[in-house]
Amino acid sequence: MANRSVNLMYKICTQEYKAFMEEYKKFLHYYTEVERKRVLIKTNAGGGNTEKKALLYKQVVEGHINATNAYIRLVAIYKQMVQKWQEAAEKRL
Predict the structure, then answer these.
(1) Using CA atoms, how far apart are residues 39 and 31, in angstroms rounded to an integer?
(2) 1-29, pLDDT tens digit by residue?
(3) How far apart are CA 67 and CA 75, in angstroms?
(4) Which residues contact 25 (CB under 8 A, 6 or more apart)?
């Protein structure tokens, strides 16, 4: 029964699932970039160059905001998928 429910969800939410996966890829991209730049900052990649560090900090903050926004969109898409699936499941009962 659980397998049927999962299959039903994918059939009903194909467009939403595609949007979810696209947004998930964006989230992973932003998150990876932020972590890479944080490592650069922590390992003192710019040496004593405060201009480079300031730029890296700015990029980390912007990337973190982008990752957070992508995550918020992910949750919204997921909520839409679950609601659509629930409505379809209720109609089938």
Answers:
(1) 12
(2) 456 655 666 666 788 888 889 999 999 99
(3) 12
(4) none
